[in-house]
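Appendix B.2, paired examples.
Example (i):
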Amino acid sequence: MQNGALMQDAKTTAKKGKEVVAFSHVGKIFSTGTNALQDVHLSVDEGEFVSFLGPSGCGKSTALRMVAGLEEASTGSVQVNGVKPKQLIRESNDIAFVFQESNLLPWRTVIDNVILPLELRGGSKKNHRESAMRVLEMVGLKDYVKAYPRQLSGGMKMRVSIARALAAKPKLLLMDEPFAALDEITRQSLQMELLDIWQREKMTVLFVTHNVFEAVLLSTKIAVMSARPGRMSAFLDVELPHPRSLAMRTERAFGEYVEQASAYLEQGSLRKELG
């Protein structure tokens, strides 16, 4: 890595391909008066894996929920594929969301939990089952299709949640700290599975985390956010080769990215205004 990690101005990231997600002058003030986001600019290109990295309460999850159409901007605009997120969701199945909790229905089996969003959209039950089996095999749960959530570990429940999100073959996958509650061994296993799925399915991924090591390991780009009201204080391109592995964490280049991301995170947490 020459000249350390690459930092880009928060308003002028270099274009690499088709723009999938765009934030322009986005602000969010809740009815309680909480100023969550202020003047956020973001551009995400097709096929990127972008992590939102920032301190607790900086608006990472709020930004992600805006992309999903679950929150509205108070100021500015959020677009996905050139239209408002709610419009895109009405017209296609291009966006899927994985939350911090697996949110599985306890009375439905694994495969029935995965099939549920497909059932809500209508169509062939046979096709739904085939899609569900495809993604359950992808996440290593093909032998647990008849199990119930109470019979699964925390990591297995999260795998089901990921499979449910992937069943409709989304082009944009949103993930809100999905591994935060897992033990370290399970977390590392799912990180590797996620990277493999991202590369094979050729999706665009937006991933919320406050873990610097996780952000560097997974991302092609890290969007570093400042303390509330959250802003994009820096973008860091992570140019580590693919496929990635856990062994990379011991390499010098990985350590340099971690050091640089940590420095940007500290700077963003302290300053009130962008430089």
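Example (ii):
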Amino acid sequence: MQENYLHFNSAAMVDAAKGYEEHLASNGKMMITLAGAMSTAELGISLAEMIRQGKVDIISCTGANLEEDLMNLVAHTHYKRVPNYRDLTPQDEWELLEKGMNRVTDTCIPEEEAFRRLQKHIHALWKDADTKGERYFPHEFMYKMLLSGVLEQYYQINPENSWMLAAAERNLPIIVPGWEDSTMGNIFASYCIKGDLQPTTMKSGIEYMGWLAKWYISNSQAPGVGFFQIGGGIAGDFPICVVPMLYQDLEMHNIPFWGYFCQISDSTTSYGSYSGAVPNEKITWGKLDIATPKFIIESDATIVAPLIFAWLLNH
């Protein structure tokens, strides 16, 4: 199938959305991958409803997107907007640091009300599991925290706009590759270094891949699992590799390829930017089939993803 490109071409964007809709209509499953800082860009306003309406079956995301949706949920009114962020000097940035305001593009996340507010409650869950010799994935600890209701006292946005809360209520499968480089991952590591927790209390990325392999085997029967990638990087690179791993390394030669593929990214193709690779390159790696519907939307994901979700929610 011919690839479809968009330099903000609405017709091509609708084609990608129609492909998504057709895949679900044929009883296919759909994975959404979240890179960048989409949670801080408040993608939850549309993604949460996508989850509630059953238009998402599994999510792969960075540890930052996992936690930043919760930070927005409990600390939104303390966020600082910096519309002139392109003009900030190193001194301006230093002053934000001294105020405990960590900047993500034009939005500063408050350390005390966001990071530390979550830390107090998530550490209690980590410690309880550690003491009992239990082990969970990063997202499972966050699901426990959300469903316990302990964060409700802090809610500062409509909870219907939290994609993590919608996912927890549905017990949606989540894969979080590279969780260790997130703020909560750093905090967990600090407790391990101090001897307060054991590293093994947190299940690892290898275990995530093993879990994903079993899930994919169980859910990849025709028409298969679709792959809707928002941004580049590990959130997409990690889960898409489950197919060639199953086929090449486990020699499961009947395993289906991904059944639909769309990537929204403004990354260009180069040796230094694998995430900007066009979909056809993924055929050579055993990820996509020749006939897999393929779309690449070369634009800002913070604009395009909500538009596609809005289209899907209204069809």
